[in-house]
Design a protein that fits this description.
The structure is a single chain. The chain is mostly helical and 273 residues long. The chain has a single domain, classed as MetI-like (MetI-like fold), CATH 1.10.3720.10. It contains 13 helices and no strands. Helix 7 packs antiparallel against helix 10. The longest helix has 36 residues. The two termini are 16 Å apart.
Length: 273
């Protein structure tokens, strides 16, 4: 635990994510305005002690929309990262351990990685239809290959170690070797990659929602709030500014956590420190 506390990146990232999570969890308590209630009498109000982040063109409180929108972004990012992590972990274990399976899966993975992630996500969501669940499906489809490659590399590096050979000699089954002996030694890079995937998913969700393919209006997400403000860049810049800051803090926090975990789990870096 002391090593984690001493790692500045991990600590700063954890604080940022804790702040974002706190706002998301207690959104109904923190906010005093309905995020979807229209009040045209107060449209495009600037930042004030009443409307902390101002209002949008429909008079909706931007602070309330940003806080409630954090729930959608975190929901999408969390489930996209976790599902990708589980599927990628299982497939990566088998790909690294079984050569024939690896030959087939690697071709498929390489094919998916050729295409730009955001463009493919947009195409998948457009084909399935705009919805948050379809956004998650698109992200899982595109990020799982990254997890597979990381886990596969870890398995390949340890599957011929002496303790694995010893397990085979005493009659351990392949499943026991994979999940009891090899998996624990592959968890560190997997966790780091899942953390980066969480941040990536938040960014992609914002991009997809900005294009109108994510969370359907009037429900707020960081991406569609920015989209609502794109026509008021000069007259009401606060509509785009605050959700942009929220995205930056969340992604920065997750990337700091990922970098910190990578430093803490990389034996070469630990030895230098």
């Amino acid at each position: 635990m002391k090593r984690y506390i001493k790692n500045k990146l991990f600590v700063i990232g954890s604080i940022l994510i804790l702040i974002v999570l706190t706002f998301a969890i207690f959104a109904p308590i923190i906010t005093k305005f309905d995020p979807i209630k229209i009040d045209t009498d107060n449209s495009l109000q600037p930042v004030s002690y009443i409307h902390y982040f101002g209002t949008d063109e429909l008079g909706r409180d931007v602070f309330s929309r940003v806080i409630h929108g954090s729930r959608i972004s975190l929901y999408v990012g969390f489930f996209a990262a976790i599902i990708s992590g589980i599927i990628g972990m299982v497939l990566g274990l088998f790909a690294g351990y079984y050569q024939k399976f690896d030959n087939v899966l690697s071709r498929f993975v390489d094919g998916l990685l050729v295409f730009p992630g955001l463009i493919m996500a947009i195409l998948i969501v457009a084909a399935l239809g705009p919805s948050i669940n379809n956004v998650i499906i698109a992200m899982v489809t595109l990020y799982t290959p990254q997890i597979i490659r990381v886990v596969r590399g870890s398995v390949v590096s340890v599957k011929n170690e002496d303790y694995i050979d010893a397990a085979r000699v005493v009659g351990a089954s392949d499943m026991r070797i994979l999940f009891i002996h090899i998996l624990p030694n592959s968890l560190a890079p997997l966790i780091v990659q899942v953390t980066f995937g969480f941040a990536w998913a938040i960014l992609v969700e914002a991009g997809i929602s900005f294009l109108g393919l994510g969370m359907p209006p009037p429900n707020p997400s960081w991406g569609n709030i920015i989209s609502d403000g794109r026509n008021f860049v000069y007259t009401a810049p606060w509509i785009m500014f605050f959700p942009g800051i929220a995205i930056s803090l969340a992604v920065m926090g997750l990337n700091f956590i990922g970098d910190g975990l990578r430093d803490l789990t990389d034996s070469r870096i630990r030895n230098v420190q």
